[in-house]
Structure formats: C-alpha cells, structure tokens
Amino acid sequence: MALRAEHEIHKRRRSRNVGVGIALAGFVALVFALSVVKINTVGPVEGFDHTPRASALPPQEPAE
C-alpha cells in the first residue's frame, strides 16, 4: 500500500481546526483569568443555605 500525498482540502481543514483550537484555548484562558481576579477581589463568598447569617444581620446594640 503506497502512501498518498495529502490533499489541499486536508491542509485547509487542519489550519482551520488549529485556528478554532487556539480561539477556544484563548476563551478558556480568559474565563479562567476573570474567575481568578473575581475570586481574589471579592474574597470568601458565603453560600445561600436558608439560614440567617451573622454577617447579613444588621448590627445590634448591646443590651442594658
């Protein structure tokens, strides 16, 4: 069985696939970077678990 030369359409498909792969990798990197920046900026996030949180309650004055 002889080796066949690569057709031009395969070269075009490969270059298009490489371009789509680079664009996808760039998008993933952008989302990751934005997530890291948001997490570092906001700080720890408290989840919503249907219970009152001390940090969400208004400050109470000390009882006399």
UniProtKB/TrEMBL annotation:
Entry keyword set: Membrane, Transmembrane, Transmembrane helix
Chain intervals for the UniProt region annotation (Disordered): 44-64
Membrane-spanning residues: 20-39
Tree of life domain: Bacteria
Protein name in the entry: Cytochrome C oxidase assembly protein
Organism: Psychromarinibacter sediminicola
